[in-house]
Amino acid sequence: MPKKPIAKFSVPYLQILDEHGKVDAKLEPDLGQERAVEMYRWMRLARELDERMLKLQRQGRLGTFPPCTGQEAVSVPTAMLMRPGDWFVGAFRELGGRLVRGEPLTATLDYYNGWEEGNVLPDKDLRILPTSVVIGCQIEHAAGLAYASRYKGTDEVAVAFIGDGGTSEGGFHEGLNFAAVWQAPMVTICQNNQWAISIPRAEQTHSETLAQKGIAYGMPVLQIDGNDPLAVWVAVEEAIGRARTGGGPTFIEAVTYRLLMHTTADDPKKYRTPEDEKCAWDKEPLLRTRKWLTGKGWWDDAAEEALLAEVKARVEAAVKEFEAPKDRAQDEPFRHVYGTRHAVIDEQHRDFLANIAREAEHG
Amino acid sequence: MAKLNMVQAINLALRQEMDKDATVLVLGQDVAVDGGVFRLTEGLLERFGPLRVVDTPLAESGILGSSIGMALAGLKPVCEMQFSGFSYLMMGQFEAHATRMRARTQGQLGVPLVIRMPYGGGVRALEHHSESREVLYAHLPGAKVVIPSGPRNARALLIAAIRDPDPVVFMEPKHSYRAFREEVPDEEETMPIGKCQVVQEGSDLTLVSWGAMMRPALKAAAEVEQKRGASLEIIDVLTMAPLDSDTIAESVRKTGRCVIVQEAPRSYGASSEITAQINDKALMHLEAPVKRLTGYDVVTPYFGREKNYIPDAARVVHGIEETLDFQ
Known about the structure:
The complex is a heterodimer.
Chain A: E1 13-14, H1 32-58, H2 72-81, E2 87-89, H3 95-101, H4 105-111, H5 137-152, E3 158-163, H6 170-181, E4 186-192, E5 195-196, E6 199-200, H7 201-204, H8 212-215, E7 221-225, H9 229-244, E8 250-255, H10 274-281, H11 285-296, H12 301-323, H13 343-362
Parallel strand pairs in A: 1-7, 2-3, 3-4, 4-8, 7-8
Antiparallel strand pairs in A: 5-6
Helix pairs in contact in A: 1-2, 1-3, 1-11, 1-12, 2-3, 2-9, 4-12, 5-6
Chain B: E1 2-4, H1 6-20, E2 24-28, H2 44-48, E3 53-55, H3 60-72, E4 76-80, H4 91-98, H5 101-104, E5 114-119, H6 134-138, E6 144-146, H7 151-163, E7 168-173, E8 182-184, E9 197-200, E10 205-209, H8 214-228, E11 232-236, E12 239-241, H9 245-255, E13 258-265, H10 270-282, E14 291-295, H11 303-306, H12 313-325
Parallel strand pairs in B: 2-3, 2-4, 4-5, 5-7, 6-7, 10-11, 10-13, 13-14
Antiparallel strand pairs in B: 1-8, 6-12, 9-11
Helix pairs in contact in B: 1-7, 3-4, 8-12, 9-10
């Protein structure tokens, strides 16, 4: 018998606002002026904080961190579309989304300066999981969080992020598979920023798209322009809506670009050219968002100037708060090994304190 | 009160805790319809339904990773690794997240879950089905490792593990699953996690063991006591991490001699840590070197050769006598 096709798949692509600020009016979502401006304001704040953090790091005032510049259009609209009960499950390039979700600016500063305090949210019910430094694990967490929604009969959705490199990890595949088998309310967004440190997208996978990896698990997929906040808005709104109403998980590949280094410890000149980066800067998201807002008559140079001054002041205030002297106990980790007390920890805690006291005495 | 084997006792613990607490759920490969390959979860699907007794895809990391998510959302997952030999595929999730989330968030987020896994040799199984690797988990800060030795303590400790605020690796000595029965009270019973149990008091030597090795240890102790009238104190470790070294050290300060029986390979094994704790806390009371009777530092042989690689009562008798006779 001749072979015959038994299944056919396709990967749709969505772009609404192109790099020149031209919008497809038929597809344009109706955000309204207030939300549209709010979205841009969050993106600008995230950009400002990111740029300031880079300066702080170069001045030795901040530890190693992974910049998010250029990827603001993915996590900001996504977080704006989430409800308080939903779970924000980040990888580590979702600064804008975290801010939208309610994480203080000082949290990311604290965290990347070596303090666990940066992972302590003002309120646990903000439902933002800490950064997942190990790549890919968080997709499995999100599947479990989403399962818990079904279990409890709520309509809470887990929204998870991952990078292009992360799609090679087992955790990504196991997480998507579990979510699909369970038809769990989960949305997974891959920020395909083209680079996993030095490994380009083409060497990460032979697949034509990353989006198609979701097809293998039997879920709706979509590739979108990840520098287009309107495409993100439409795609994520649809995916969250489907998840919330029992329609199961979705996988979205948001095509973007890591404009800066992987982390501040990385030097992209080793593996890509300034021309590559120049090209990508022309497509970055803030520029086109501003053009779109301006075209709508919702934004002008004066508004831009005022916003720049405002975000600068906000970041400055956060840096000031972050750098203010704090009395942080060095023995704090001993209090958080277990949720119960045990002699083995108490003994070593005493030993630690004795060492500190001895060193303080003898210099 | 009924006479139960360990399989029935663990099943009872799960059933009672699921009856009592609607946030407790069971997940793993073949745990629902099949009732588990060892039948530990038999009857739970019928009683609690598919939302609470979940057959998962075949993926250890996915099982633990999703359990972590469930725990973060306020559920209490009891997940099963079908055999400890496959559990290494979830080690990334365990080390990176289960054990660290509490410290990472300074106590704001905890991961209360239980990972049940059958471990150890003696059942003539396929490769990867016979190892004792408790220290791989016990070494990780934030991990709790509990190893029952019989039906009654398995039941009591599993309930305690489910109620514990931390991730607990609950290692079930599969050789003991159906090896013997004990009276297990119908009414709820728990035992503290983080405590060794002195199962027999004595004055001449402290015999320490856990899991499936408790059986040859007890048998050997009875033999030595009968043969030469020695008085042995016997300690069942029960919780490997965090280790209750005080109970062991207190006993050794009294007896001056100690033998530790361990199924796992010798180097870097739990018996080495226990020996070091005895050195810290009871060295001046020792009248003989602490003896470790253990498996060997070889890849666990396939079952054709397995028998001689696992400590048995005869080896334990010999080790106890050597230590008693040490001058």
